Amino acid sequence: MKSALKSGLLALAAAALPAAAYAHPAIGEAAGFSHGFAHPISGLDHVLAMVMVGVFAFQLGGRATWLVPTTFVLVMALGGVLGATGVNIPFVETGIALSVVVLGAIVALNVKAPLAATLGIIGLFAIFHGHAHGAEMPENAAGAAYAAGFMIATALLHAAGLTLGYLIGRAGERQGLFVTRTAGGIAAISGVGILAGLI
């Protein structure tokens, strides 16, 4: 179990670390991609939500394993377009914080929601995350490259969540469930802290 948890944490850390190149100025396509890639991994709220999406997808299993993360990435891209074009969506930051609370609670409670309801919830939260990415796109960034960056970073965080769920699952049903619920609970509590402005 220790080995599985260690591997999962290493995978999560690797996905969450921005590359050193992001500290250097760039223009056009390079600036677009690097800024886009760095954005989802630069905030605790985004990282926690993305990883919880991956763990949730693993818990659901079957088609949800790929449908949940794919839906999130695609709908997030739509939210990114809305943000980049200046379309206003109210309570974006609140929606992002709530996504951490809700997704963490879903993972902690091992909720087995119907796939349609799951995709609806995932899509709603993806709009908020995508809007934030699009609205914060630097002026000198190339739009398509920026979008590709934040979509790839998000997919990698989902993959880290799926990997974490898989490794936890291999640790044993009883122990794995405890670890998963603990991880979800920590994420949910962190989301409350973000929502309250304490984190």
TrEMBL record:
<feature type="transmembrane region" description="Helical">
    <location>
        <begin position="144"/>
        <end position="166"/>
    </location>
</feature>
<feature type="transmembrane region" description="Helical">
    <location>
        <begin position="39"/>
        <end position="58"/>
    </location>
</feature>
<keyword id="KW-0732">Signal</keyword>
<feature type="signal peptide">
    <location>
        <begin position="1"/>
        <end position="23"/>
    </location>
</feature>
<protein>
    <submittedName>
        <fullName>Urease accessory protein</fullName>
    </submittedName>
</protein>
<keyword id="KW-1133">Transmembrane helix</keyword>
<keyword id="KW-0472">Membrane</keyword>
<keyword id="KW-0812">Transmembrane</keyword>
<feature type="transmembrane region" description="Helical">
    <location>
        <begin position="115"/>
        <end position="132"/>
    </location>
</feature>
<feature type="transmembrane region" description="Helical">
    <location>
        <begin position="178"/>
        <end position="198"/>
    </location>
</feature>
<dbReference type="InterPro" id="IPR007038">
    <property type="entry name" value="HupE_UreJ"/>
</dbReference>
<dbReference type="Pfam" id="PF04955">
    <property type="entry name" value="HupE_UreJ"/>
</dbReference>
<feature type="transmembrane region" description="Helical">
    <location>
        <begin position="89"/>
        <end position="108"/>
    </location>
</feature>
<feature type="transmembrane region" description="Helical">
    <location>
        <begin position="65"/>
        <end position="83"/>
    </location>
</feature>
